[in-house]
Amino acid sequence: WYPLPDGNNRIIIANCEGCTDYRDGAKWEKEDTMESECISEINAAFSHPTEKYAYIISRDQYVRLESDNRNRPVVSEGYPQYVAEQWPGVKGVVNAAFTDYENGRTFFFVKSKPRRKVYCWNWKNSKMEMDGEDEGNSLFAALPKTD
């Protein structure tokens, strides 16, 4: 993902056949797309609990998606950004995330041994409420266990 000369952003997604470039929400073919510009892995995706934004995390960066004037997803201006800057304290590779809409929180799961670490971001007060709790914590007893 990166800005185009006209100021719009684009996302490039890699697959087995190479890169697919999306501009203005539509597939766009171009021969000079560099493999290094591709999103080769989407680690997590989730949406904001109250705003009309979606987030895609790839490695240590993320993009925010919003709707254009035709209601199609586009990358917001100023992205990508670093995960650790938006959600302070999240250390490591996020490999899952979900939003609790009722309580305005997003949970991030980060690879760790022996279990993943869990971080909880409260969108209402912009604070991290759980800072790397063990996934085996009793708060998560109902969640499926990982290997």
Précis, in short:
The protein is mostly beta strands. The protein has one helix at residues 83-86, and strands spanning 2-3, 9-15, 18-23, 26-28, 44-47, 54-58, 61-67, 73-75, 81-82, 94-100, 105-110, 117-122, 127-134.
Structure description:
Helices cover 3% and strands 45% of the residues. It has 147 residues and is mainly β. The strands form 3 sheets. Strands 5, 6, 7, 8 and 9 form a 5-stranded antiparallel sheet that branches. Strands 1-2-3-4 form a 4-stranded antiparallel sheet, with no helix packed on it. Strands 10-11-12-13 form a 4-stranded antiparallel sheet, with no helix packed on it. The two termini are 33 Å apart. The longest helix is centred in the middle third of the chain and has 4 residues. It is globular and about 45 Å long. The N terminus is likely disordered.
Please state the CA-atom Rg, rounded to the nearest Å: 17 Å
Overall, the morphology is globular
Sketch the major β-sheet.
5 strands, antiparallel
- Measured as a percent range, the helix fraction is under 10%
Spans of 5+ residues with little confidence (pLDDT < 50)?
A: 1-24, 30-37
Oligomeric nature of the chains: single chain
Topology, number of strands: 13
Q: What percent strand?
A: 35-45%
Measure the end-to-end span: 33 Å
Order of helices and strands: EEEEEEEEEHEEEE
Give the overall average pLDDT. 74
Structural class category: mainly beta
Total helical segments: 1
Give the topology, please.
Layout: E1 2-3, E2 9-15, E3 18-23, E4 26-28, E5 44-47, E6 54-58, E7 61-67, E8 73-75, E9 81-82, H1 83-86, E10 94-100, E11 105-110, E12 117-122, E13 127-134
Antiparallel strand pairs: 1-2, 2-3, 3-4, 5-6, 6-7, 7-8, 7-9, 10-11, 11-12, 12-13
